[in-house]
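Exercise 7b. Backbone tokens:
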């Protein structure tokens, strides 16, 4: 970059302290949104938990309990499980023709006292509506990821975080009072959209004020509060069995986000690039005071910021800005860049392999989490363990890719996930613990795979297409996360092993596809598509890999 030959932002930041108390407090505030995202991302496992149910008998009232003799007269029974059918009844007592549950359903209160499934009868022929609840939430994450980045670049990181947090508080609390399925899904979409906006924009803000030596570590640790929220969810759900009260319990802590309005600074880097140098100086002065550092004179700081901005924009401080492109031109340019991802043979192979691997790792990550609740006798324990295994998975993944290499680690995580999940099908139907153990091995591997693919993708796309390649790959991950609940909810009633078969085979095929990707460990990063087509993956200098982590996220 041009700034490399003049003043760099890291030099400016170091004057105020690049890893002090100011940064630590900002990271603590970022944990609030991260924990809340972890709870809400998987809350449908309990808010939308499916209780055991059967058809209501003709004339049966909600508070009545039919005798065992009546149930045998009116309901078909499954000889293998000894339980009555969930979606059929006889046309008459002792009849021989089945009907749907035209009189409604009776739900067990043993595991869940109340869920949206029991309140709005999202079972049997309406089960797809429950899958849509989680899919629409993932679609909210999809939209939030795309739009929040544009908004934070246009209006600033702090403003996006603050306004999104207010909408998050309102939508998440209002969800507890939703009077209809449509209202519930809409509010969940808004919660996902705004929660992702807070999570992503806070991540960008945190990374922009951290020194280069700490960015990789902070980027890794940033995921751990998400896992903590993930683990806190089943504990709350175990204590609060009514879905409306549970929604209130996991949403109430979001009022802490109002503190963002007073505690969060704007990114000084963003302010400099917007030519708002006095405001950037105010932020740096506050950072230096908190970090107990002494800044150079205001004039010297203004000079350094002006030089940095001029080098970054390739303009002198006195030049005018180039006219901005129209929205139509920007859109056309974006489509052109996406086409370049598949325009040449090697670039096409890398891009398609990346798209498939991102789709599969997200499909397995979310699919195994939700399916583990069905494989275990206790969904509370299953979801807690699914969150717990994320912490060691993330902590082990990054050191492993430096020692073993990116591609072998990627292949290994997919193979481990696929093999473990496929082995679930060999476990007898009535055995819970072996299934849950194998599911957690698959979850561990998919969590490690997610950590690996984030770093790996930033290395195998050329510099000229790195942002668009990473963004397109991430979009494919959202497709996988939206498909996961349909696989679990619609295929498991056909046979409990089908989701495991889908996830397991997907993992094995993704491992084979990952072999098409280049090894990037200790290699120079490609600059252009031409470098990719020439196979230019030369060994990097001793600090070549570290240079990647000194770039802005």
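Sequence design result:
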């Amino acid at each position: 970059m041009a700034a490399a030959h003049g003043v760099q932002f890291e030099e400016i930041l170091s004057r105020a302290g690049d890893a002090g108390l100011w940064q630590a407090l900002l990271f603590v505030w970022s944990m609030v949104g991260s924990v809340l995202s972890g709870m809400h991302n998987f809350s449908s496992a309990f808010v939308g938990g499916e209780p055991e149910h059967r058809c209501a008998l003709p004339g049966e009232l909600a508070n009545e309990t039919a005798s065992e003799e009546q149930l045998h007269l009116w309901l078909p029974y499954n000889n293998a499980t000894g339980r009555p059918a969930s979606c059929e009844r006889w046309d008459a007592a002792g009849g021989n023709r089945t009907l749907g549950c035209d009189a409604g359903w009776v739900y067990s209160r043993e595991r869940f006292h109340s869920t949206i499934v029991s309140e709005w009868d999202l079972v049997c022929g309406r089960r797809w509506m429950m899958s849509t609840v989680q899919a629409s939430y993932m679609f909210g994450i999809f939209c939030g990821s795309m739009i929040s980045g544009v908004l934070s670049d246009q209006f600033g990181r702090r403003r996006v975080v603050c306004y999104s947090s207010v909408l998050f508080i309102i939508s998440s609390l209002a969800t507890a009072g939703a009077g209809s399925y449509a209202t519930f899904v809409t509010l969940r979409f808004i919660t996902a959209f705004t929660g992702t906006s807070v999570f992503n924009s806070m991540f960008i803000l945190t990374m922009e004020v951290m020194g280069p030596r700490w960015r990789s570590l902070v980027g890794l640790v940033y995921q751990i509060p998400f896992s903590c929220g993930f683990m806190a969810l089943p504990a709350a759900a175990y204590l609060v069995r009514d879905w409306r009260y549970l929604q209130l319990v996991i949403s109430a802590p979001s009022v802490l986000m109002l503190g963002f309005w007073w505690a969060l600074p704007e990114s000084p880097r963003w302010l400099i690039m917007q030519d708002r140098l006095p405001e950037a100086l105010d932020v740096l002065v506050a950072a230096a005071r908190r970090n107990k550092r002494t800044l150079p004179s205001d004039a010297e700081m203004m000079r350094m910021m002006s030089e940095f901005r001029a080098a970054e924009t390739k303009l002198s401080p006195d030049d005018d800005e180039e006219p901005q492109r129209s929205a139509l031109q920007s859109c056309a340019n974006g489509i052109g860049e996406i086409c370049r991802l598949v325009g040449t043979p090697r670039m096409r192979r890398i891009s398609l392999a990346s798209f498939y691997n991102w789709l599969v790792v997200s499909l397995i990550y979310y699919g195994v989490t939700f399916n583990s609740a069905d494989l275990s006798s206790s969904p509370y324990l299953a979801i807690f363990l699914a969150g717990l295994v994320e912490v060691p998975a993330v902590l082990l993944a990054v050191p492993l890719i430096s020692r073993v290499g990116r591609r072998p680690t990627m292949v290994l995580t997919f193979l481990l996930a696929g093999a473990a999940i496929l082995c679930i099908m060999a476990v007898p139907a009535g055995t819970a613990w072996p299934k849950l153990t194998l599911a957690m091995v698959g979850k561990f591997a998919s969590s490690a795979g997610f950590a690996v693919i984030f770093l790996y993708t930033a290395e195998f796309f050329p510099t000229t297409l790195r942002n668009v390649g990473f963004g397109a790959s991430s979009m494919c991950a959202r497709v996988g996360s939206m498909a996961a609940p349909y696989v679990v909810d619609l295929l498991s009633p056909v046979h409990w092993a089908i989701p495991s078969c889908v996830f397991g085979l997907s993992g094995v095929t993704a491992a084979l596809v990952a072999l098409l990707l280049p090894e990037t460990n200790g290699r120079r990063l490609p600059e252009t598509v031409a470098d990719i087509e020439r196979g230019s993956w030369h060994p990097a200098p001793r600090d070549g890999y570290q240079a990647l982590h000194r770039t802005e996220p």
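Instructor comment: Residues 315-323, 540-553 have pLDDT under 50 and may be disordered. The chain has 25 helices and four strands.
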